[in-house]
Design a protein that fits this description.
This protein has 337 residues and is α+β, with helices and mostly antiparallel strands. It is built from nine helices and twelve strands. Bound molecules: adenosine-5'-diphosphate (ADP) and magnesium ion.
């Protein structure tokens, strides 16, 4: 019997910057997905999940396109099996301590990374992250950056990760002792997230075709673009990259009020410049940001609904109707026999 645990992740700051080689500051969680199972000689991949009724049962090796396969969640597993050339057979079970139903904590990356490690992916963790990203692309058609997979695979307990998505350098950043990370839902399921995501990505590529890499661009350069939408999108990316290092400095100096302000600035930028928020998300952000014990809050993840993240004094509770949790920075994916 082999077992693998892969955590979810929450991004503290650095949103919509990974796909232009920018900076991000996510942390792996201490909750995630566990797959337990065994290789066999049946020539089939058979898995069940405690969060879904219908099991996966497909013949190996997996050939061709996985996007018509049922159940939908099985596409990640089938694609992972395809990536490592799984042929003999495998049977197992999936358990999750992440909330069911798309809260934006990267259960999909946790699943892809867990499957890859379990089925025998043995490259270094950066290569595994790239393969996990291809798995998600094959399963969903979403052309994501590498932040989620790198966080899931490289998490360090008690730390966030400064990831340079250009060089792929990863530096653990200790979280101050006197702060707690809260994740809470906006009350709005993520809508249009995939198509809008691809659209934002295309705009960034168009900007880069005009002025070169956004990672090196200045505010003056993006402000001088002709297209007003490009100005706003570019301005978000340039400022958001700067906010990642500003947040690390705020953590290092223990200035949690400043850390909170950086979150608030980040939210405003996502809402007004990158335009990936919604009225419901904005209202939830304002409600929570005004609560006692909260330093600041912002939308986290791709946007158009989903979850928000806040920095708070330890012991702070959220008086909201929606789901929320205390997020503790945990270890990256681990395989055990
Ligand atoms: P996120 O990655 O932010 O949690 P996504 O919409 O990208 O949200 O991924 C959620 C999808 O990942 C689910 O619809 C399902 O296909 C798959 N998934 C997540 N958790 C599980 C699980 N415990 N068992 C099986 N599939 C899961
Ligand atoms: Mg996902």
């Amino acid at each position: 019997m082999t077992s693998v645990f892969a955590p979810g992740r929450v991004n503290l700051i650095g949103e919509h910057t990974d796909y232009t080689g920018g900076l991000v500051l996510p942390m792996a969680l201490d909750s995630g997905i566990t797959i337990t199972g065994q290789h066999n000689d049946t020539g089939r991949l058979v898995l069940s999940s405690s969060q879904f009724d219908e099991p996966l049962d497909v013949a190996l090796p997996i050939g061709g396109d996985v996007t018509t396969l049922q159940p939908v969640w099985g596409r990640y597993l089938a694609s992972a099996a395809q990536q490592v050339g799984l042929a003999r057979g495998f049977e197992g079970e999936i358990e999750s301590t992440l909330p069911a139903g798309g809260t934006g904590l990267s259960s999909s990356s946790a699943l892809a990374c867990a499957a890859l490690l379990l089925f025998g992916g043995d490259a270094d963790r950066t290569e595994l992250a790239k393969t996990a990203r291809s798995i998600e692309f094959a399963a969903t058609g979403v052309n994501s950056g590498l932040m989620d997979q790198l966080s899931v695979l490289n998490g360090v307990a008690g730390h966030a990760l400064r990831i340079d998505c250009g060089s792929l350098d990863i530096a653990p950043v200790p979280l101050p002792d006197d702060v707690e990370v809260l994740v809470f839902h906006s009350g709005q399921p993520r809508m249009l997230a995939d198509s809008e995501y691809n659209e934002r990505r295309a705009t960034c590529e168009a900007i880069e075709a005009l002025i070169g890499p956004l990672r090196e661009a200045t505010l003056d350069q993006v402000s001088a673009l002709d297209d007003p939408t490009m100005v706003k999108r570019g301005r978000h990316v340039v400022r958001e990259n700067a906010r990642v290092d500003a947040m690390i400095e705020a953590f290092t100096s223990g200035d949690l009020s400043l850390a909170g302000e950086i979150l608030e600035d980040g939210h405003r930028s996502l809402s007004e410049d990158y335009e990936v928020s919604t009225p419901i998300v904005d209202a939830q952000q304002q409600r929570v940001a005004a609560m006692p014990g909260i330093y600041g809050a912002r939308l986290t993840g791709g946007g158009f609904g989903g979850s928000l993240v806040a920095l708070a004094e330890p012991g702070t509770t959220l008086e909201i109707d929606e789901w929320w949790m205390r997020a503790r920075p945990g270890q990256g994916a681990t395989l055990s026999d």
